[in-house]
Amino acid sequence: MKNNQRIHNFGAGPAVLPIEVVEEVAASLPNILESGFGLLEISHRSDVFQGIMDNAINSIRKILKVPDEYEVLLLQGGASLQFYMSALNILRKGEKADYLITGGWSKKALKEAKRIGDAEFIWTDEQNNFKMVPNNGEYEVRDDAKYVHYTSNNTLYGTQYHNIPDSKGKPLIVDASSDITGVDLDVSKHDIIYAGAQKNLGPSGVTLVIISPWAMSQMDDDIPSMLNYQVHASKGSMFNTPNTFGIFVLSKVLAWLERNGGMDGSIKRNLEKSNIIYKELDRTDFWRPHASKDSRSRMNVTWNLKNKELEEKFIQESLEAGFGGLKGHRSVGGIRASMYNYIPKESVEALVEFMNKFEFKYSEK
Q: Tens digit of pLDDT for each residue in 236-278?
C-alpha cells in the first residue's frame, strides 16, 4: 500500500468518517462558515458556534426521534465517565441497581455504580467468554431495583442485543456507544442513553447523553456541578468550554447521515456489510467466529483462525494489503473487523476477497 493512500479502516474507534466530511472539516480549519475565525479558534460563546451546537442537537433529535421532553447533552469524558455519572445522578446510597454483564465495558459500568449504591449483576456470560447476550426470561430484576443497565453492543467480543432487554417496568439505562445511529433505537423506552461519539457520531472527545424527564427529576443539588446533568442541561451543554471541534465534526457527520437515508439508510447498509462478512466466516472452518449466531454484532465482527499460529500473520499481511485495525482487543485477541456507519461496503467486500486469498494460501498449514 502506498503511504498516501487511505487505508480500509476497520478500527474499533476512533473510526472511519465519510471522506466528504473529512474534506469539509479540512476546508473549515482556516475559516469556518466564512466567519473569519479558524475552526480550532472559534469561541464557544459566539453566535457561529451556538448555531453549530443547535444544528447538532436538532439533528440528533430528528435522526433518533428523541421525544421533545427529553434532554439532549453533548458532554466530554466518554462512556467511561458516564459509567459513574449516570449512576451518580440517579442512585442513592442503599438503593439498588441491576446490571446485565455482556463484556468488559458493562463490567466497568457496574464497578463504577458500586461506588454509589447497591449495584449488582443479574446476568453475566463471563463464564462462557462473553459469546452471547441474554434472552428475556433468563434473568430476574430485583423488585426494588431503581433501574436496569445494559450495553447495547459489545465491541470487544462482537455481541449485540437485537431487542430491548425486558427491565420488568424499571427505568432503563443503556450504553449505546458503539451502535448508536447504526441500529434501531427506541429512545422513549429508555431513561438515560449515553454514547461516546468516536464510533458512529464523529471524533473522540464528545459524549452524547439523552435523558428522560423521570431521570432529570431524580437528581440532588449536592452532586458536583461538572457531574450534574441538570447543570449541563441548564447551560445548553456549555457549562464549561465544550469540544468545539468535535461538535462541529459531529454536526457534519449527522448532516451526511440525513442526506444518505438517515437511520433507515444506516441500518440497511450495516446489515448488508455484516451479512457479507458473516457469510464468509460461516463458509469454512478455517475461520472460527466468536459470538453465538443469535447474538452477533453488526458493528464488530470477531473471530479466530482454526490455526491460531496464523493470526499474527493474518494481521500483518492484511495491513500490508491495505487493511487496518483488524487486531482483536488486547483482552480478547484474535481478529476484529469493526464496521461502523461510515466504512463503505466496498471495504468489506475487499476484506472478504483478501480472506479468500489468505485461506487458499494457508489452508493446508
A: 999 999 999 999 999 999 999 999 999 999 999 999 999 999 9
Question: Residue 184 sits in which domain range?
Answer: 22-259
Q: Which of 203, 237, 259 is the last residue of a domain?
A: 259
Do residue 204 and residue 90 come from a single domain? Answer: yes
Three-state helix/strand/coil letters over the chain: CCCCCCCEECCCCCCCCCHHHHHHHHHHCCCHHHCCCCCCCCCCCCHHHHHHHHHHHHHHHHHHCCCCCCEEEEECCHHHHHHHHHHHHHCCCCCEEEEEECCHHHHHHHHHHCCCCEEEEEEECHHHCCCCCCCCCCCCCCCCEEEEEEECEECCCCEECCCCCCCCCCCEEEECCCCCCCCCCCHHHCCEEEEECCCCCCCCCCEEEEECHHHHCCCCCCCCHHHCHHHHHHCCCCCCCCCHHHHHHHHHHHHHHHHCCHHHHHHHHHHHHHHHHHHHHHHCCCEEECCCHHHECCCEEEEEECCHHHHHHHHHHHHHCCEECCECCCCCCCEEEECCCCCCHHHHHHHHHHHHHHHHHHCCC
Indicate which residues carry an active-site annotation.
105, 175, 199
The pTM for the full model equals 0.96
Same domain assignment for residues 162 and 228: yes
